[in-house]
Amino acid sequence: MKQYKNFISFEGIDFSGKTTQLERLGRRLREINFPFHLVREPGGAAISEKIRAILLDKAHGEMHPRTEILLYSAARSQLTHQAILPLLEAGEYVIADRFFDSTTAYQGYGRSLDIAFVEILNRFATSGLFPYRTFLIDISPEEALRRRKAAARPSDRLENESLRFYRAIWEAYHALAAQDPARFIVIPGEQPVEMVAAAVWERIAEIWDLPR
Ligand code: TMP
Asked: Which residues are CB-contacts of 132 (< 8 A; sequence separation ≥ 6)?
């Protein structure tokens, strides 16, 4: 297992507010001139962005779960080897908008694939790289569905999943957090945006020794 203190990831079920929180965090880090790199999963490298487009295309409803997990893993492998590992080796700070926990949760648990195999595939795709800390922005599956309805924007292929699927992912994230409490930081995501942001900042400041 490879772990760099400079590498953290963010996870959460769809509509958890993860993207909003990453935008706020990015703004605050820029305000203090703290240099960092934000990478987005699936994507973040030219090859990975092309794979992302295949994955999120609504016309690909026939995609088999095994195809899906291999594509996510392929996208992550390229991003990890082309961007994340070289940055970390150079001492840079990297924040990942999703990493392999998303594959364990969405494909492993969500699509009922063999979890032991998923873990091996995750290690293979990332050459054993683990986030030092993983922020789980936590909202209930019911809240996710409410937010999806309120947003009323055309949803992509994955957001069309049922409440049952969201519930499986929510349970998966909680199981992962319980298995690895030293890595996971669970932030309640149903409080006002500012409070979530403050909780995230407090923990990041502690990890990276930033001003409070
Ligand atoms: P996003 O909403 O964070 O942009 O993520 C896009 C979708 O991709 C989201 O529904 C979660 C899903 N996803 C997986 O199913 N497996 C993965 O490994 C990753 C990284 C994302």
From this structure: 3, 4, 5, 6, 7, 8, 183, 207
Rounded distance between C-alpha atoms, residue 68 and residue 10, angstroms: 21
CA dihedral 56, 36, 173, 81 (to 10 degrees): 60
Give the predicted TM-score (pTM) of the model: 0.95
Pocket around ligand 1: residues whose beta carbon is below 6 Å from it?
Answer: 14, 41-42, 72, 97-98, 102-103, 106-107, 158
Q: Which residue has the CA at smallest separation from atom 7 of ligand 1?
A: 158
CA–centroid distance, 40 to ligand 1, in Å, is 10
Q: How many Å lie between the centroid of ligand 1 and the Cα of residue 142?
A: 18
pLDDT tens per residue, range 152-191: 766 666 666 678 888 999 999 999 999 999 999 999 999 9
